[in-house]
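Researcher: Next sequence.
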Amino acid sequence: MEPGIILIAPGDFHMEVKQRQKAGKTVEVVVLNKGERVQGVRPSVDVLLNSIAPIYGKNSLGVILTGMGSDGSTGIEKLKKAGGKVIAEDESTCVVYGMPRAVIEHKLADHILPITKIAEGIVENV
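Model: Next structure:
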């Protein structure tokens, strides 16, 4: 993993962050796997967020954008308990409000922003 790099999980693979030892140092690596579907989907953002929370804790920021179902809400809850911050997309700009709704209804979002303000919200919270 490198600062300033965005990774997107390929279709049909979960993405996780793991810690490994390399040259006597602990480093974070991204691992792809074909584990069981979570809430019927793979990739699942819950899998990714559940792996990030214990590693990055208060230094993590979860962003939940438009999407069907409630994928992400369990991982966001774990991230919040670890001290991380959460941005959810506002219903007014969502194509499908399912994923942000689940986070917002569980009162897990620190910020609820329209899509046009998400990038600004990320910059302000990192």
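Model: The chain has a mean pLDDT of 96. The two ends are 16 Å apart (CA to CA).
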